[in-house]
């Protein structure tokens, strides 16, 4: 008897292990490691992943597997091993790690179906597909499952999943003349049915089946004209799968490789040589903004796929994907798949299936694309490696770069990390020789030089402009660009209209009832919104505390700045790009395309306007309030401010026109801002490293955090006391334990929050100790989790 080791779909550390199940004889030739199955678990039937198949079990009585969900395994050997390792590395359950690797459509409630791909199938299966190409898998007798498996391997059939909350496979109806048409038409007169005759003539002239809807639109027909021809056996109607294409509305323009400058060519050669020798080396490609890093990526990948290998290209978030994906599509055509959260569930499912079936060799996508089911990886590239969005904040709390290192090691291929502003941890490793440093010191366009950067000291402006959102100097620079028919990008790291609503009488601020945070005013729908839990309420006139009508708006958001710009520059066309204007599918790409077509003069936005966008006519970048990100309670605040401002400054003057950057700030002497002015990453690195060394932060120490939350504050405090005692008894004296500390936002979604920060250099048992902690203290009303790659402490 064969036995399957199964990880069941229960996200609880108490049952986070493999369970043995008997494989029934009728499923023995179908179930494979990496497939999903339905198994009995207590009184329930749940799904799970088969980890491996063996011949013996230490358990005498085994319950049998009920059903197999995948004829073709969806997790290969590498991804199964990776999932189990990630479970240990992140403190997540194995099922959470495996589910992170597959599309949402396969995690939903689904209907499994069998699609006929070829005209001929194995004889014993023909009766299943009478007059149809698609059947429910449930109708397949278990006695035929081995034949189905063989037909799938022969690419005669494919197993697909239609999720209830997804679109499943997209099927398009086609029309064609039947094989019997010529013999049947001899005895049929269509002269009295002119519309039917028109359709028949149209299909005669067509050399292949035609889209039914196209026929209807072209000939102005409907189903009443088709059905009689089908009934007479003259015309057949059938369905064919059509992939949902994320690029269907994007014009693809074939591009060719550019001539590289010396530094670019050296970078390409170094990575390609490592690939050729199957060396698992990590490279840091440190290039100034506009230095042509993307062209380097393209030519590295071109060399790799020429050897029939595959490539993963990660971008930090959806804000970067459309432009970069378009460049890859223009260069490599249908060899490219995209994976990111901006796709519909159906599009993502179809793109993932292309990868699984080997129909593409390149994946461009955000964080989760690192799990693309490639079997022959030749290179992994991570663009803007410093971005925090490579870290997933919900379980499994993995960092995509750490996963990339594991996959590159498995495939013995190079890993390339690219950035104009590398994280301190990455650059420190490059300086030590752990990573290989590749430098692009000049902009790729010879006539393009780095923009001039100037700080506008808002403390020193005249009294009559101290209340203005846009200073006179920045306003005059915008006027100048409008007169010269050039474009402007303005950055404000805050969305909404005004930051908060405060009472002038008692000073009370209107806050979220679920979280310890002020509500943000959004003018278009006159609503107050919480950006943590999405709570929303109408704007109120009376103060909830003192009941006076003293409520006033304070602060500034993108909506308020947009309104101010419209008043200040009435002839300017202004476009706003923030979470609110890019929430609908395709809206982000539509805004970018419109600005590229010069349908707007000023692009105002939050952080997303500073990340990877390339507009040739932008010659001025303005930063409205640099201090917003500089003075938050996070040890990475200076680093992230330097990175953001350097990146947004890089949007100016990229195509030969001299660019200018004006930064409004109340902290002009801060070293991070001074280094932005001088385009001096190296000085920033040295100064920030001194701060990190002094206070014991990465890269001098590793960090892990233990988070606790509960609706019951007293229970939370008691749990913190027990955790505090456990940590100090279990960890070595060399560890620095800080906390328990309440985050800046101490309550979210009605749950109070506390955390411990653990600093350490060498602590071999920390993963085991913290895993045990989650098992011991995950009880009652208190939730506990560990984050080994903490990004922020808000």
What is the secondary structure topology, with strand pairs?
Elements: E1 3-8, E2 19-22, E3 36-41, E4 44-54, E5 67-68, H1 77-90, H2 94-99, E6 110-116, E7 134-136, H3 145-153, E8 157-163, E9 171-177, H4 181-184, H5 194-205, E10 210-211, H6 212-219, H7 223-231, E11 235-241, H8 262-276, E12 282-287, H9 293-305, E13 310-314, H10 321-332, E14 336-339, H11 345-356, E15 362-365, E16 377-382, H12 400-411, E17 415-419, H13 424-432, E18 436-440, E19 452-457, H14 472-483, E20 487-491, E21 500-503, E22 520-522, E23 527-529, E24 536-538, E25 551-554, H15 558-568, E26 574-577, H16 587-596, E27 602-605, E28 618-623, H17 627-630, H18 637-649, E29 660-665, H19 671-677, H20 681-695, E30 702-710, H21 713-730, E31 736-741, E32 747-748, E33 751-760, H22 766-777, E34 783-787
Helix pairs in contact: 8-9, 18-19, 19-20, 21-22
What are the main properties of this structure?
794 residues; alpha/beta; GIY-YIG endonuclease; 6 domains; 7-stranded parallel sheet; 6-stranded parallel sheet; 30% helix; globular
Give the integer mean of the pLDDT values: 86
Shape: globular
CATH topology of the largest domain: Rossmann fold
Taking all Cα atoms into account, the compactness measure Rg is: 30 Å
* Count of runs of 4 or more consecutive helical residues: 22
Instruction: Profile the largest sheet.
Output: 7 strands, parallel
What's the CATH C level of the largest domain?
Alpha Beta
How large is the share of residues in beta strands? 15-25%
Number of domains: 6
| CATH superfamily grouping of the largest domain | P-loop containing nucleotide triphosphate hydrolases
The tally of strands reads 34
Fraction of helical residues: 25-40%
N→C terminal distance: 54 Å
Poorly predicted tracts of residues: 163-167
């Amino acid at each position: 008897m064969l036995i399957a080791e199964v990880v069941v779909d229960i996200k609880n550390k108490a049952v986070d292990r493999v369970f043995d199940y008997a494989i029934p004889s009728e499923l023995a030739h179908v179930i494979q490691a990496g497939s999903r199955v339905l198994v009995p678990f207590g009184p329930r039937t749940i799904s799970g992943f088969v980890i491996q198949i063996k011949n013996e079990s230490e358990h005498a009585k085994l319950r049998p597997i009920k059903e197999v969900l995948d004829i073709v395994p969806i997790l290969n050997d590498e991804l199964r091993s990776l999932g189990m390792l990630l479970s240990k590395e992140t403190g997540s359950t194995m099922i959470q790690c495996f589910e992170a690797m597959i599309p949402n459509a396969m995690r939903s409630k689904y209907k499994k179906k069998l699609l006929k791909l070829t005209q001929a199938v194995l004889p014993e299966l023909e009766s299943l597909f009478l007059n149809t190409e698609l059947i429910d898998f449930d109708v397949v007798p278990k006695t035929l499952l081995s034949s189905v498996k063989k037909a799938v391997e022969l690419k005669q059939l494919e197993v697909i999943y239609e999720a209830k909350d997804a679109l499943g496979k997209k099927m398009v109806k086609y029309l064609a003349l039947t094989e019997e048409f010529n013999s049947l038409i001899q005895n049929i007169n269509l002269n009295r049915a002119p519309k039917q005759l028109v359709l028949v003539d149209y299909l005669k002239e067509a050399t292949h089946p035609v889209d039914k809807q196209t026929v209807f639109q072209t000939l102005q027909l409907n189903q009443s004209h088709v059905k009689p021809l089908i009934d007479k056996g003259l015309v057949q109607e059938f369905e064919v799968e059509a992939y949902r294409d994320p690029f269907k509305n994007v014009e693809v323009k074939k591009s060719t490789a550019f001539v590289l400058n010396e530094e670019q060519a050296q970078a390409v050669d170094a990575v390609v040589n490592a690939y050729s020798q199957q060396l698992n080396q990590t490279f840091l490609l440190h290039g100034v903004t506009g230095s042509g890093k993307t062209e380097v990526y393209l030519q590295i990948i071109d060399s790799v796929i020429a050897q029939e290998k595959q490539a993963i290209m990660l971008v930090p978030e959806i804000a970067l994907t459309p432009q970069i994906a378009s460049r890859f599509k223009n260069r490599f055509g249908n060899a490219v798949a995209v994976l990111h959260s901006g796709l519909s569930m159906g599009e993502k499912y179809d793109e993932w299936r292309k990868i699984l079936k080997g129909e593409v060799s390149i994946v461009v996508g955000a964080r989760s694309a690192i799990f693309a089911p490639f079997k022959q990886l030749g290179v992994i590239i991570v663009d803007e490696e410093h971005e925090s969005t490579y870290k997933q904040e919900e379980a499994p709390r993995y960092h995509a770069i750490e996963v990339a290192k594991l996959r590159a090691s498995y495939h013995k291929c190079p890993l390339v990390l690219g950035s104009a502003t590398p994280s301190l941890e990455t650059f420190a490793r490059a300086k030590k020789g752990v990573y290989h440093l590749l430098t692009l010191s000049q902009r790729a366009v010879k006539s393009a030089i780095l923009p001039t950067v100037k700080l506008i000291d808002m403390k020193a402006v005249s009294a009559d402009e101290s209340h203005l959102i846009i200073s006179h100097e920045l306003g005059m620079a915008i006027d100048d660009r409008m007169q010269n028919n050039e474009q402007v990008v303005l950055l404000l790291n805050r969305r909404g209209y005004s930051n908060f609503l405060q009472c002038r009488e008692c000073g009370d601020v209107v806050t979220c009832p679920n979280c310890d945070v002020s509500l943000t005013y959004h003018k278009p729908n006159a609503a107050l919104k919480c950006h943590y839990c999405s709570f929303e309420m109408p704007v109120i006139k009376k103060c909830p505390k003192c009941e006076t009508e003293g409520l006033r708006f304070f602060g500034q958001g993108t909506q308020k700045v947009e309104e101010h710009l419209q008043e200040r520059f009435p002839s300017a066309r202004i476009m706003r790009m923030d979470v609110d204007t890019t929430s609908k599918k395709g809206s982000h790409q539509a805004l970018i395309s419109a600005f590229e077509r010069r349908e707007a003069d000023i692009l105002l936005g939050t952080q997303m306007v500073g990340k990877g966008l390339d507009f040739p006519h932008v010659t001025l970048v303005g930063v409205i309030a640099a201090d917003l990100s500089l003075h938050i309670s996070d040890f990475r605040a200076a680093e992230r401010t330097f990175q953001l401002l350097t990146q947004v400054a890089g949007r100016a003057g990229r195509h030969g026109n001299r660019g200018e950057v004006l930064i409004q700030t109340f902290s002009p002497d801060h070293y991070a801002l001074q280094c932005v002015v001088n385009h001096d990453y190296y000085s920033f690195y040295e100064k920030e490293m001194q701060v990190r060394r002094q206070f014991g932060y990465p890269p001098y120490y590793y960090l892990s955090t233990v988070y606790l939350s509960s609706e019951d504050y007293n229970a939370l405090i008691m749990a913190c006391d027990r955790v505090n005692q456990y940590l100090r008894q279990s960890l070595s004296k060399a560890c620095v334990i800080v906390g328990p500390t309440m985050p800046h936002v101490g309550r979210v979604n009605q749950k109070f929050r506390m955390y411990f920060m653990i600093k350490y250099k060498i602590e071999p048992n920390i993963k085991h100790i913290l895993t045990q902690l989650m098992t011991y203290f995950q009880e009652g009303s208190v939730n506990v989790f560990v984050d080994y790659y903490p990004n922020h402490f808000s």
